[in-house]
Amino acid sequence: MQRERVFFFAGLFLFFSLALNSPVLCEEGTLFQEGVRQYYAENYEEAIEIFQKLQAKGSGSSQVSFFLGMSYKQAGDFEEALPPLRESLTLQPPVKEAAVELAEVLYRLDNLPEAKKWLAQSEAYNTFPAKTAFLKGTILIKEENIPEGIEALEGAKRLDASYGQIVDYHIGIAHLANRDYDKAKERLNAVVAQDPLSDLASFARRYQDIVEERRQLERPLMLTLGILGQYDTNMLQEPDASDIPDLGKESSLVMQTSFRMDYLPVFSGNGLFNAGFAIGNSLHEKNSTTYDTLTGTFYAAPGYKFGRLAVNLSTNYTHTLKRDPSYKRYYEAYTVGPLFRFLLSQNQIIEAYGAYAKDSYCIDPGLPEEDQDNSGIEGYLGWTRLFQNGGMANFKYGYSDKDADGENWSNRGHRFTANMIFPLRKTIQGQLGGDAFLQRYKNTHTIYDKTRKDQTYSALAGLIWDVHKSVSLNALYNYVHVKSNIDLYDYTQHLYTVGLELKF
């Protein structure tokens, strides 16, 4: 690139103009020249060794420090590059060209305040103005100052046309981060057009796909229709113990249909809001009049964004009807509480959630101590990592503390969850997950005369095939095992599910 040639000749000029007045030229001049030659030959380890020898002999100078720092920088050892580059700017005469190089090293080490300090110095020196403007733009964008960052990048391209492709690339990514998808697509298209075979063009094509995915995901209104077929090996969740009479495992085919509507408007300011409604129906081949259900869920989460921190007030309401033999009110649940999301980095998110929860069962339990109506608190702390290939990993720790109307059902629980989505092919993703829910009940069971302890372990494995951008086929296997110190609550369940999901 042109800027690289400029840097090369500038370096040579620096050497021949400054070294002539340096004490290094006398008996150490030849060694200095050899170090510079090794540097431009990209033999950075050899160059480092030579410049370190010069410093050890007391022949150090701003020029020696500069080339030592640049050798470390080009070798990718940014921490080691810092001291000599700083020296090259403090020793006399200072190497003015080192200011922008030091700023770049600090940027790579995520020390933005000091990087900006040396960029300002580079602007005052007026050395490598295009590179200075480019680096200033990337720092401003990293600080989420998108408009000024784009302005600085455009300035770099005006100063040096060879920056055209990389500037368009960074501006495209900036527009993507700012949710301006039309402008992002325009810039990324320009990157590919300038040099279709370059590495930058390859990266730009990946982000072109991300632009379209984001555009689809961030539509204000999204409708999802699901049709699933399931085989349940233990639909009644009967215990594993063989010595419990009159109980036996019963399998059944289940058909599930669902409709979901999500509303997620995009605001120009820091306001946040999302809401949605879902309804689902389960139809069983066996015992349909007892276990068929119709469930509706509504959620809303107004919020506000403070830089990297987003805060939402999450509210949820669930209402379930049970067919017995006609559909009747069976279950209601309410939760309300704050949800905190912190953007740890561009691909890592920390979540913290806490809520008041209330569950109500609209049936007669028969015995007062078996009344499962409860209220209490629940919450979780989670970490999510997003990968450039479209994959995702999520880990959560959850806690709940519920007091039930029936003394047999008050409990505390700890939940550990891990999920992962990973690409297998361009249109096929794999899914793996696991969950451990450890519950300890607060009271002695009125029938079994012991304090109940449950350990619920579940695992899932599945495939997601995106047949079309709006159509996916899913296959999922779920394993559930409940281990309790009361045999009645011990059971094992296998669920095999295949289905179709349509998004509009």
Describe the protein.
With 504 residues, the chain is of the alpha+beta class. The chain has two domains: 2-214, Tetratricopeptide repeat domain (Serine Threonine Protein Phosphatase 5, Tetratricopeptide repeat, Alpha Horseshoe); 221-503, Porin, CATH 2.40.160. It is 34% helix and 39% strand. The protein contains 13 helices and 16 strands. It has helices spanning 2-18, 29-40, 44-56, 62-74, 78-90, 98-108, 112-125, 129-142, 146-159, 164-177, 181-194, 199-217, 288-291, and strands spanning 221-232, 252-263, 271-272, 275-284, 293-300, 303-306, 309-323, 327-345, 348-361, 374-386, 392-404, 411-423, 428-444, 451-468, 471-484, 491-503. A 14-stranded antiparallel β-barrel has the order 1-2-4-5-7-8-9-10-11-12-13-14-15-16. β11 (392-404) and β12 form a beta hairpin. The longest helix is centred in the middle third of the chain and has 19 residues, at 199-217. It is elongated, with a radius of gyration of 32 Å. The protein starts with a helix and ends with a strand. The model is unreliable at 1-10 and 12-26 (pLDDT under 50).
